[in-house]
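Below sits our specimen:

——
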Amino acid sequence: MNDTPIPRKKSTLDKDLDKIVRIEEAAGYLSRGVAATGFGILFIAAAAIFAAVYVAGENNGALIIVAAMLGGYMALNIGANDVANNVGPAVGSKALSMLGALIIAAVFESAGALVAGGDVVSTISKGIIDPATVANSGVFVWAMLAALISSALWVNLATVLGAPVSTTHSVVGGVMGAGIAAAGFSAVNWATMGAIAASWVISPVLGGIIGAAFLAVIKINIIYQDDKIAAARRWVPVLLGIMAAAFSGYLALKGLKKIVRLDGAAILALSAAVGVATYLVTKPIIRRQSMGMENRNQSVRKLFNIPLICSAALLSFAHGANDVANAVGPLAAVVHAAEAGEVLAKVTIPLWVMLIGAAGISFGLLLFGPRLIRMVGEQITKLNPMRAYCVALSASVTVIIASWLGLPVSSTHIAVGAVFGVGFFREWYTAKSKRRRDYMARKYNRTRTTPETVMDLPTPPAPPEELRRRLLVRRAHFTTIVAAWVITVPAAAILSAVIFLLLDAIF
């Protein structure tokens, strides 16, 4: 007797209710985007009110308020785009939930900006424009406003397209374009621009190589060992010590300049001491955590979860301390030029300006960050805690190496380049794997009937569609992101030049 229940035919009421539910789900999805945009507009308005309180009664107060709104808009976009690189790998590897990542990043980004953010900022970003060529304070103010508008619009567009771009390069392009429109091509320091252009290649390639190298170390010394747990007890404390040393140097170089300034020897000694101490402390901890674990890759991955969360927090802190100037640097320059009527190479950042930058980055992350976090952590290539750990470690090590060599690098390009490097290394390593070749032989050579003959015959080529399906890095995302990197500076420069000419003609 067949006891399988006969499916009940849906009534007209049931069908109508299903349609209503689907409409409600679609409306809820759309309303989330509208709500985020609405809150973003409210933040920009709050930035204007906040600025008005501080500049009440001052000359050019209206101009400063407009600049504060644009600075807030830029900060929102930095939070939406740039911060994803710090927490995306942790989310993609499931070490952090999306909510946990947003909270950690918002807290540590704000802490980095307010506690360790630079109190003095260059008015002409990265020294690409000679201040003497824009000595007129009125021209300078319009140039900085044009740079803010263009860089913010470009980062906003990149975020909508799902492309993590360098906000530093966006600001550089904006300042360069406005400077050229204001004072001609001779105003640009082309040697500096050449070094910045070189970082387009140096940053992702260096990040990818270092990330792949760490993944190779983990695979060879832990994953492909017969006793994975014993290998993890030997090597995980070493890797944690390297991570602690790297982040100590990274923070000393990029995140704590306002608190304490150390020379190269002091930073090296600090990093070594922290690395050794971390190794000694974590060795017994890892041994206790690994007691009773099964001899499986999944067990080893769990040992990397907490270090990965710590790395996301530290990267966010260093980013907040170092990159908040991208949002508030031009704003601080406008405030000083409008109040004092002079153009200086460097200016002090008022506290209220820093608060707008810190709050804007955090709000931008919370409102718009999940899209890019998923892109970096989940959609480029599949990450687990070990691979994500290699990405985070690569970000800190690459910055230290680049600073030591005097190379200009982008933290965005480094982190995303490390994700690509890890993915491409896995593709290459998988293609060279004997176990994978044997699997493909059994699947695509139907003439082989026994395991013995499978091992002796050459592996036939897989069909092209199967080869494409097995690519571990999504090529569509790769080409989109690289294209966005290449055109960031020229696109922001052209947009900034056009905006400056319009502002100059109108006002």
Notes: DSSP finds 18 helices and two strands in the chain. The first helix runs from residue 12 to 55. Residues 39-432+473-506 form one domain. The first strand starts at residue 120 and ends at 122.
